[in-house]
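FORM 12-B: Structure-to-Sequence Request
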């Protein structure tokens, strides 16, 4: 296996607070890696450093062996790092397929000069991407009328339009009903297996994490306290201490559902 992403000593301070402290890990090609931890553990800060939104105070990030520390989000995106967000960013007035076509146009650097012909371009590839996420039957529907779970699947197709080497997914199942969450993560796991994409995701729903992640890393107060497979993480005394105190390790969070 080859290393896609590697961090060494990644650290971020906010004044006197060390939000992420000396975090080193690597992610292999084709791996579905979860980053978990209680509220305020440093997951988003870590993600934002990987995507270039935040500069590390210390430490390095390498992508496919090249250092990307301190590059802008656009430069990192251009190198093949895609991202999905907690809040979906689709164009409500456009159809499902048009949203994917726009992403493909952007990927090919064609957005501004040929917008008038956009609806004719990349249709075949857009349809193939929609098929990958099970949305081909909804291609001509407007995004405004889509169910929340379908929007999340569309968002995945949009992220894949960029043909990423690495996909960062920040709480991909936030706001979804439990059954939809498992389905979305299963879909992601299938895509990882079939397309060879690597995925790093943060998630509060432990059922989703333990069902699908190949490996799990646990952050607590900015520090990486465990890194291993589901069984090793379940049995890790430090992880149990962090989670069982709050009682959230094996219970899905059901707040804020759009079911
Ligand atoms: N821009 C900022 N300025 C100051 N402190 C920040 C900033 N961003 C994050 N923090 C602090 O850094 C710590 C880690 O926050 P972060 O959002 O990374 O945690 P998280 O694990 O993503 O939490 P959650 O699960 O609640 O989203 C917290 O104490 C937070 O208050």
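FORM 12-B RESPONSE
SEQUENCE OUT:
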């Amino acid at each position: 296996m080859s290393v896609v992403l590697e961090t060494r000593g990644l650290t971020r301070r906010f004044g006197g607070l060390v939000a992420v402290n000396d975090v080193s890990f690597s992610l292999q090609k084709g791996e579905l890696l979860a980053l978990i931890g209680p509220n305020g553990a440093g997951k988003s800060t870590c993600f934002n450093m990987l995507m270039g939104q935040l500069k590390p105070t210390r430490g390095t990030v390498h992508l496919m062996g090249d250092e990307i520390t301190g590059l802008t989000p656009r430069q990192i995106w251009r190198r093949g790092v895609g991202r999905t967000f907690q809040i979906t960013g689709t164009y409500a007035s456009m159809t499902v397929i048009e949203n994917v076509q726009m992403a493909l146009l952007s990927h090919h650097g064609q957005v501004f000069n040929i917008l008038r012909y956009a609806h004719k371009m990349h249709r075949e590839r857009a349809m193939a991407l929609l098929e990958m996420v099970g949305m081909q039957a909804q291609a001509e529907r407007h995004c405004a009328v889509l169910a929340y779970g379908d929007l999340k699947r569309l968002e995945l197709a949009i992220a894949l339009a960029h043909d990423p080497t690495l996909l960062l997914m920040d709480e991909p199942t936030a706001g979804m009903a439990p059954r939809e969450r498992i389905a979305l993560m299963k879909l992601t796991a299938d895509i990882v297996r079939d397309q060879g994409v690597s995925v790093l995701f943060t998630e509060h729903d432990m059922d989703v994490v333990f069902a699908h992640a190949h490996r799990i890393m646990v952050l607590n107060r900015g520090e990486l306290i465990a890194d291993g497979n589901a069984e090793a993480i379940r049995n890790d005394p430090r992880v149990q201490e962090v989670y069982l105190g709050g009682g959230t390790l094996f219970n899905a969070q059901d707040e804020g559902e759009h079911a």
